[in-house]
Amino acid sequence: MPIKSVYIFTFIVVFTLKLSSGLNIPETIDVRIFSGNNISEFTFMPTKGRYLICDQNHNKLSEISPLTSLTIKRNQKGFEILQDDSVIFSGKNIVLQGGSFQNSFLIAPSGNHLQARIYDGDIRIRYENNQVNIINAVSLESYVAGTVQSESGFNRHEEFYKVQAIIIRTYALNNLRRHQREGFHVCDLVHCQAYYGKTVNPDIVRAVEHTRGQVVVDNRSALINTVYHANCGGQTVNSEDLWPHAMDYLRSRIDTFCLSMPGAKWEKSISMRELRSFLSQKHKFQPNESQWSQIKELKQNSRIHHLDAQQEVHLRHVRDHFGLRSTFFSVQEQNDTLFLSGRGYGHGVGLCQEGAMKRAEHGHSLREILGFYYQNSRILTLEPEVVF
Ligand SMILES: [Zn+2]
Ligand SMILES: [Zn+2]
């Protein structure tokens, strides 16, 4: 092999390690982008490198240079691609494949208020279920960096960004089968993890690079489910109090670090009539007088999980129905109105992001932070291997 080729191939690094769970780590993560939007027309423009326009059998139809654009338009049978005002493709499947070593592109949806976004890697465009779906095939580390930005924002402590990078990488690898039937790994919504394209934030890029390949595992070296939420309100939740399974690393913990952060408190009022109709229509539950007085005086100094002592209604259903920030709230009644004063933001299981931010600012290491929210877990580095 010529020296030049060796040089190029050493940069094509993919993770091929098999964990004890038998997980095969793919070369790219396939993310359905703009998942929540039914886009019927958009512009595609390479921002770095040229792109090859290929059919589903990887036959090259055309190519496109940086900073020139294509228009992709849905039609009655699929979609068409226009280049310089001529239709160069009409059908249901196309691949826009980077033709250089590093590639990125911009997607600008037309006709609605969505902002343009820039992504690394390739895309596949598919017409299915009467809509145009866009799949971004992107390297794991680039996906992690973009997701750190979408999930945790700007101006965070460097150690917190490292924590986020590790748990986002772990969560992605642990949930690769979530959308298997639909033909991609993860969506770009909070259902999986929010991913709104690449980041150029140098702090995030550095944190991802410093933690490259690092994941959180249990004592059998299996990836753990690194769930996280914005603010626990002072106490995290046992996994079995919200979901079917008890996980020994997802234990309820008292967390005082998030109490001064923006997501620590919330308030909301709902009418008795609204609550009564929710309980009777959705849960066939018509509380008697003493049950009503318990509900109207519900107090949570530490977390409970049901609205009523008989455990007819789980608080997560109340949260979902009324769009509450958390299930960690107390109630006061006045003139047929229930005033809810709540704590925290999110489901409360696993890592509390605002608690972790504060811990990082107080000098806690990423190992201490991960060890607090995911008990008895440890960090494993997936060794990169050169693949030819
Ligand atoms: Zn999803
Ligand atoms: Zn917290």
Overview of this structure, please?
This protein has 388 residues and is of the alpha+beta class. It folds into 3 domains: 28-138, no CATH class; 164-259 and 348-386, no CATH class; 265-341, no CATH class. Helices cover 23% and strands 28% of the residues. A 7-stranded mixed β-sheet has the order 5-4-9-12-13-2-14. Helix 2 (140-152) crosses helix 3 and helix 3 crosses helix 9 (366-373). The relative contact order is 0.14. The site of one zinc ion has 6 residues, from loops.
Helix/strand layout:
Layout: H1 3-9, E1 13-14, E2 29-33, E3 41-48, E4 51-54, E5 60-64, E6 70-74, E7 79-83, E8 86-91, E9 93-98, E10 104-109, E11 117-120, E12 122-128, E13 131-138, H2 140-152, H3 158-174, E14 186-187, H4 202-210, E15 214-217, E16 228-229, E17 265-271, H5 272-283, H6 289-296, H7 315-322, E18 329-334, E19 337-343, E20 351-352, H8 353-361, H9 366-373, E21 378-381, E22 385-386
Parallel strand pairs: 2-14, 16-20
Antiparallel strand pairs: 1-22, 2-13, 3-6, 3-10, 4-5, 4-9, 6-7, 7-8, 9-12, 10-11, 12-13, 15-21, 17-19, 18-19
Helix pairs in contact: 2-3, 2-4, 3-4, 3-8, 3-9
The chain binds zinc ion (2 copies).
Main β-sheet, spatial strand arrangement: 5-4-9-12-13-2-14
Small molecules bound in the structure, each named once: zinc ion
Can you count the helices? 9
**What overall form do the CA principal axes indicate?**
globular
Radius of gyration: 24 Å
Largest sheet, strands/sense/barrel? 7 strands, mixed
| End-to-end distance | 11 Å
Unreliable sequence segments = 1-18
Strand content: 25-35%
Give the tally of β-strands.
Answer: 22
Mean pLDDT across the residues is 91
